[in-house]
Design goal:
19 helices, D-Maltodextrin-Binding Protein, domain 2, globular, alpha+beta, three-stranded antiparallel beta sheet, 2 domains, seven-stranded mixed beta sheet, about 40% helix
């Protein structure tokens, strides 16, 4: 879609509200001027236009608020911004192609440590990110790690998309559980009881960028396993990994058939269709049910809770993360920085976070005070995602190796191969070890 002046006043209430956005690009009235932050750091080049590649939104309000803020930026600066949407799975390869051929979108809203696959193809944004950190309470360490390489910012952290267990309260109680289990042993017993009642669970073992990776990493980390150590040495072949696989096989036996091919959309569809009673997802699952009158019974029955604690003895979750990078082939890098600076201004970012209804957890600490986090008990498990997430590639450093292994779904495939019987546990671990060693040399 192209965001231009003609569409500024169209759309939802969120868009209308954004028409009154304040800030150095176009404050309206004395009160707005008084509330406005310091002057803009970056001045767009004459005749600038921009193109952003982003992931398809799961929450309509998030998209509307992002587009509204973009329209306000265009209204204030004259810089036209085109927004292209791709499925979660397709953003990564399309961004990599754009980076390597040197053409296509100017910016990309990408996943995890994807920028580390092509850091030399990106505009350094240290000036932007240090200014944003100083203005908005500082960056969360986990999100910052996804933006910094060798002391330089190569990407601007945007958000963590929290991951939590979403379940049908009545089904859990019917299975004999008055409280949701807090540990992995109790969780397995619950899933076995749900299957016996004909209301099974389901987690993705397919190449799902978000849900598949979140699940696989939780399985490994909750049992004390890790792909590599602090020095980046491959350590996947361990008793802890073997224990994680054995646990995964027992859980998989309780699942609805077909989860080995699930992508990010499939567990949503299965849950909302009443085919599964328990899965892990962002808060978007709740709001998809809430907005459909025909699903009122499901919406009223949904509860959310953080993933159970395994033998490692503490919460360990990946959390989907997204950053925004500017490609070096962008003809208007100052305009791109000005756009990001505008989107992170307090009013604009708070509006976006609130409209996302707890789906997008802030990267900057100022926005932890957004009232969305305490507005609904359903939001509680998602509120600390940015603060508590463990970065991809734990316990090693982020870089091309961690990014490549994530993009190649090494851990996702290891568990899928083992639980489906495609390989024995030992063979699946050995295959993952071989694949990891190609990246960690």
């Amino acid at each position: 879609m192209t965001i231009d002046r003609r569409t500024l006043l169209k759309g939802s209430a969120a868009m209308a509200a954004a028409g009154a956005l304040i800030g150095p690009f176009g404050a309206r009235g004395a009160a707005a001027q008084a509330a406005a932050p310091a002057a803009a750091t970056f001045t767009p080049e004459a005749g600038a236009s921009l193109r952003l590649l982003r992931w398809v939104p799961f929450v309509k309000g998030e998209e509307e608020a992002w587009n509204a803020n973009t329209r306000a930026f265009t209204d204030a600066t004259g810089v036209q911004v085109t927004i292209d949407q791709e499925s979660w799975e397709d953003v990564r390869p399309k961004a990599a192609v754009a980076a390597n051929v040197g053409s296509g979108p100017d910016m990309v809203m990408s996943w995890f440590d994807d920028p580390f696959q092509y850091p030399d193809k990106l505009v350094e944004v240290t000036d932007l990110c240090e200014a944003l950190g100083a203005a908005h309470g500082g960056w969360y360490d986990g999100l910052k790690a996804y933006g910094v390489q060798d002391g330089k910012w190569i990407s601007t952290p945007l958000c963590a998309i929290g991951n939590a267990v979403c379940y049908r309260d009545s089904h859990v109680k019917a299975a004999g559980f008055t409280e949701f289990p807090k540990d992995t042993d109790g969780f397995l017993k619950l899933c076995e009881a749900l299957k016996a009642k004909g209301t099974p669970a389901g987690f993705p073992h397919g190449k799902a960028v978000g849900d598949g990776n979140n699940y696989a990493h939780w399985l490994l980390w909750s049992h004390g396993g890790q792909a590599v150590d602090e020095a980046g040495k491959v350590t996947i072949n361990s008793p802890e990994t073997a224990a994680a696989i054995e646990y995964a096989k027992k859980l998989y036996a309780t699942f609805i058939p077909g989860t080995e091919s699930w992508l990010d959309i499939n567990n949503n569809r299965a849950f909302l269709a009443g085919e599964v009673s328990l899965t892990a997802n962002g808060v978007s699952l709740y709001y998809a049910a809430l907005k459909d009158p025909a699903m009122k019974a499901i919406a009223d029955d949904i509860r959310t809770v953080n993933l159970p604690i395994g033998p490692v003895g503490k919460p360990v979750e990946l959390a989907q993360t997204s950053t925004i990078s500017i490609f070096k082939h962008c003809k208007f890098p100052n305009a791109a920085k000005a756009y990001l600076e505008f989107m992170y201004r307090s009013d604009n970012m708070n509006r976006w976070i609130e409209a996302a209804s707890a789906y997008c957890c802030q990267a900057l600490k100022e926005f932890a005070a957004n009232p969305v986090w305490t507005s609904n008990p359903i939001h509680a498990p998602y509120a600390k995602a940015s603060e508590s997430l463990r970065v991809n590639g734990y316990a090693g450093p982020l870089g091309p190796a961690s990014a490549g292994a994530m993009a190649d779904y090494v851990l996702v495939d290891m568990f899928a191969e083992a639980v489906t019987g495609q390989r024995t546990a030992e063979q699946a671990i050995a295959n993952a070890e071989r694949r990891l060693q190609r990246y960690y040399r």
